[in-house]
Task: structure prediction
Amino acid sequence: MPWERPSTKDMTMSSNIHVVPTERNGWAVEVEGTDGATSHYPSQEEAIAAGTEKAKLDKVDLIVHRADGTIEGRHHFGSAT
Result:
């Protein structure tokens, strides 16, 4: 099942970062609870690099999706609880 952007009411103070495919064969970095991509990239690798940097700064998870929209992996950059 493809990822669906959560509604704003589901957003927390620290929102996870998603690397998702775009309709134009590129990749986007999206923040949960926002209405669109924060940035676009031609390759998944470039999007993952940018998403990783943002997730580390924000101390949130990076969720990487496959071309079909399913989740490929999750990387934790938040502080340990």
Observations:
- Helices lie at 44-58.
- Confidence is low (pLDDT under 50) at residues 6-12.
